[in-house]
Design brief:
about 140 residues; mainly alpha; 4 helices
Length: about 140
């Protein structure tokens, strides 16, 4: 049977690195320290802490603004958040603008007047910036 398993999994091996826990969990000593920040729950790492800016609620406008900001980074209009330098990637900018246009088409008739106007103005501005960036290439 071991030979059959070797043939089926030929080319890679799987090592289970999970720790085996006993049935009854051990009681933590009374003097146990609280986990350090680096050992904290990874899901809580991205939550803003007290004193840090709270994130705005996610609604249609913030979603559109997020995509528009991404397009501006790809157009080189805004510095890249990781490198701190402008980085132009016109295919990604066009793709993000196309996603906004698709969103406009798919939500037509389902947006409030303000939301539709906001999306239209964002698209208009991004398209002009894209044309200018393509011409200065």
């Amino acid at each position: 049977m071991a030979a059959d398993e070797k043939k089926a999994g030929e080319g890679f091996t799987v090592n289970d690195r999970r720790r085996v826990r006993s049935e009854a969990p051990e009681a933590a000593p009374a003097h146990a320290e609280a986990p350090k920040e680096s050992e904290a729950n990874p899901a809580e790492e991205h939550r803003p802490r007290k004193g840090e800016g709270e994130l705005p609620p996610v609604d249609f406008s913030t979603f559109v603004l997020s995509l528009a900001s991404s397009a501006l980074v790809h157009l080189g209009e805004v510095v890249h958040p990781e490198t701190g330098e402008p980085a132009r990637n016109l295919p990604l900018a066009r793709q993000t603008i196309d996603m906004l246009a698709m969103l406009q088409e798919k939500t037509r008739g389902n947006l409030s007047k303000d939301e539709a106007t906001y999306l239209e103005s964002i698209l208009y501005d991004l398209r002009l910036r894209c044309v200018a960036a393509c011409q200065s290439k």
